[in-house]
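ok so for the tutorial part 2 we go from a plain amino acid sequence to predicted structure tokens. step 1 is just haveing the sequence, like this:
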Amino acid sequence: MRKKSNESKWSTIVFLSAVVTFFMVSSSLADNLWEGDESNEWTTPGNWSLGHVPDWGDGWIVVSNAGTVNCDTSLGSAGWAQYLWEACDTTDTTIEFNLGPESAGQHFGTSKQYVIGSSPGYTSTTNLNSGDLKIGMGSAGDRRLYLQGTGTAVFNASGNSYLFHRGMRIGQTAGGTGIFTLSDNARHETWGDIWIGNQGTGTLNIEGGSFDILGGTYLDVGVFNDGQLIVTGGQLNITAGSLLLGDEPGVTGTLTISAGRVNPKYITAGLDGNGIINVNGGELWTNNWIALGSIQSAGVGGTGTLNVSGGHVACGSSSLVIGEATDGAGGGHGILNQTGGLIGIYSNNSSLILGEIDGATPAQSAEVNLLGGETYSWAPPLVNMGWVNIDGGKLHMNFYKIQDLGGPSVIESMITAGQIKGADTDTDPSNFRIRVEQDSENPFGDKTYMVQYPIPACESRVFPNLYPYEENVTLKTNETTNIEYTIMNYGESESFN
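step 2 — the prediction. this is what the tokens look like for a chain of 497 residues:
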């Protein structure tokens, strides 16, 4: 769980002809306004109100109601600016960056903000087609990239381009929409937090390339308004920070993966809002835990849902928590629905946790529905509340596999706390025990499950195809069955690769 900072929210933009009154910064330097009297080329001095191409000595660089402006550094060095503002209220505006590399002195950059603003019914767009664009290279102050305004603000990075900034807000202004798209072999790096859906709605599309968030910063989807993160290719890397989905009550943050790879350190879906993760393909791999349904404000709590129909979801070094809690504050609602694909919890002693209890405070609810695909858990599920429902899916845990063999075509309730155990450390390690129980709350009557278990030599890792022993077990309602297996210990010299 992450407590949000009290960062001020700003959104007011006033357009008076081509003059923009901006909330935050008043510069003593003269602003250089685009006039476009001679051509649509950025590098033509006569196109600017100060009679020269923007540079460090200017205040705000304002490109407003300009149609298309071509910034091609092959026509001359584009250089640097203090602040850059792109806007529109009567005509759509597009800046086309066709830059060279920094090593050739053909890149473009700002010391402070880069703001893309718009008014209702209009769109401001920045296309970074090639070369290096660096935002916020000054030593202090607000150095973010903003996609804001009450219309539509768009940033597209494509080709072999490179974008660097120190934080980004996508959908900054109430009533507006922000859209950022990374494609082809483009590269993105930031040392700042990213918010998708602040006061307006926001979308981040990753179609290709590499989107990297460095340091201990985070990516927040659905802050004060709805946000979407859509990954159809490429990769998203958050090296030491969190991916957060659904901050405030009534807000939805959604992550959808159909191809590519998403690799944060942590994921929390549903702080006080609604966090949804859809994995239809590709890979979601965390270096730590995934928490579904958490809490940010005492007594509130959110709902986190993970829907897996394909691809691979992995917790690299911790557990998958369905319903997280914070002592004294409360907890959230967690839901896992799997109809296909693979879920892996690979760290030693980690597992599915249904309904975390922190101190004396429990989560609000937890639900797991395994309707297809396969789930691997190093340790048996820790079930403090709710059910693990198996109806067509497979659950592998600490070298055991429970598979639903049929029965009513409804969600089946099977596992509650303490009902499945791994190797009994109090006995010979060649003895394995599984306890399966039909609880009195189960409304579905008799049920048959297949219990499979491997040989001890496979303890170092889960091997999905090494289950040489199996037995079908039929349990009646209210019946408890303890099944003891004594398996021949083959020793380490035997190979089962």
